[in-house]
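Can anyone check this?
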Amino acid sequence: MHRRAFTLIELLITIALIAILIAILLPALSGAKEAANVSYCLANLGTLSKTAAMYMDDNGRKVQPWYLGLKNYDPGWVSEYIYGGFQHSVPNPDPRIGATADTYMIPTRFRPYNKYIAPGVDGKNPIRSYICPSDKTWRTPIVGESYDDPTQSPDAYSSWQVNGNSYAINWYWLQGPPWWGDESWYQFLPSFSLAGEQMLKDKVGGEAAKFVMFTEQAMNFFMYDARPQSGQFGVSLIPDLGPGWHKKWSRYSVGYLDGHSEHRYVDTRYSDGEGFDVWPTHRYFAR
């Protein structure tokens, strides 16, 4: 008894149907994977925000930067990654920074958040709580530099590989910058530390739920020159909105001062908006 074989046309139709089904399913599978990555990222940010609150409580909510008293360390520049994170093995590819970066030099065990998140960890082993699975960009803007769209040149590394952390802390309000000496680069920015301690005491309730403590690195890049929506201090030198790590335009994962985290739309040209604020309250600082 002979069995009938597929004809060439039937085989081509079958292959075409399989290809169509794959084309339909792949975006759904990719979307499901990215949704899982967002959840992982938000869990990390929630942990970081709660850790920051514990750190402030344990240290009397003082604004003095911890690393200024670190022996045998004189950072050439200070970044927004060293309150936590880990000592990575890749020197910063920016030739102006290279191996002098604080994230490359400061040992993991000295970073204050790590005693809560990864007690006893040392060396250059990655700490998962500081890694976003969708992390795609390492570049961090240097204060005062001209705008250079990071999307125009693909990155060879992720932020956690170069910075030891996928998440940037909103550090300006926490530590200064009076110790930089010259604040002319931000003429509208008074020294945050002059009122930082009082601001932290009063940042409760609705204020804490809006105040952004941590951002994914992609948002940090596009927002470093954000200005208030009032226009009182001009407009941002960065005119563009950028892509977040999770495949949605200008949507980012952020952690707030009250400990919760969100994946949301942020217009990075502005320092404030519906449901978020990256500057201290009007009460303490001119905006």
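Reply from J.R.: I decoded it. Residues 83 and 111 are 5 Å apart (CA to CA).
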